[in-house]
Design a protein that fits this description.
The structure is a single chain. The chain is globular. It is about 35% helix and about 5% strand. The chain is mainly α and about 325 residues long. The protein contains 13 helices and eight strands. The protein starts with 17 loop residues before the first helix and ends with a strand.
Amino acid sequence: MAQNILPFASKPLPNEILSSWLVRIAKNHFLEPRKFSSVFFKDKYFWTLDVDKSISGSYLDKLVQSTSVRDLDINDLTLKSFIPYLDVKFSTDQSRTWFNRIQRTKGRISSFSYLYCPNCLRTDPEPYLRKEWRIYLSTTCFKCECFLRENCPYCKNPIQHFNHNSHQLDKRFDYIKFCAVCKKDISDVEMVMAPPSYISNQKYIYELLYKGYNTSFSYSHLYFEGLYQIFQSCLAPQNIQINSALINQYVLPEFQIKKMIEIPLNRRTIILNLCIDLTMNWPKNLLDFCKENQIRYFEFIRRKRDYPYWYFSEIRKNLFLGNPTKKIGNRYQKI
């Protein structure tokens, strides 16, 4: 440690996220995560930032120099590696993001930012958190065919693996697998199996996310941009007909949500899978949904912004019949 060499640095595991890897390194060196960052990075405020999303380049360089891991492999542990495929913009507009945002209250995480599969953590030779579990679009584990969890099953606190404040010499204790608040095993909970359609949708999302394209929507970021518009349309309180369809057809309680982060995981799972279903067999499923629930097509293009061609062209074709040239700015006016 004195020479900035990490003799017990293990290699990242498949699809591991950066914070999980750093916490495992800290445990290998018999240090609490915060103590490790203070000694190695010489930064006691290291964990106050979302390190998976916005870690400093100098810190990444230091990890490359102190481990046997290549810089490309370390960069691949961060959420930024998803940008070319999700087209996520790291801006001040925190409402527009496909990443689970970290919020803190009095030093502890107050948002459910890290999801996990209890069966994966239970069966992993060495438990670790996957990068996909920080994605807002992740709601199920297609490997175990179960729903992901967002909190400790005992104390209900969010997952905060880097907030352990007392190191346990017992080798059975694991920073990833045990709750930082109540110190109980978060994997010791019964799996809740997901419907086959949810598992199929999750596989579809991950396939797009890692391949970067498919034959129906061209590049993946164009698909996710359209999916985002549908999702936001489902949340908009002025879209009364869509809200009614969600409440009645999908047995959701009445709700008014302004920010994506405010949606509980169980409700988000239902709405996201509906939105994904609407993009299948495009555009038939969406148009049928609108007709069945008497939804006006323009409720899906209320926001004044540019839309991907595959999305806007079909909405426009079914909406602007009779007056397709009336414009507002450089976009078509809804009528």
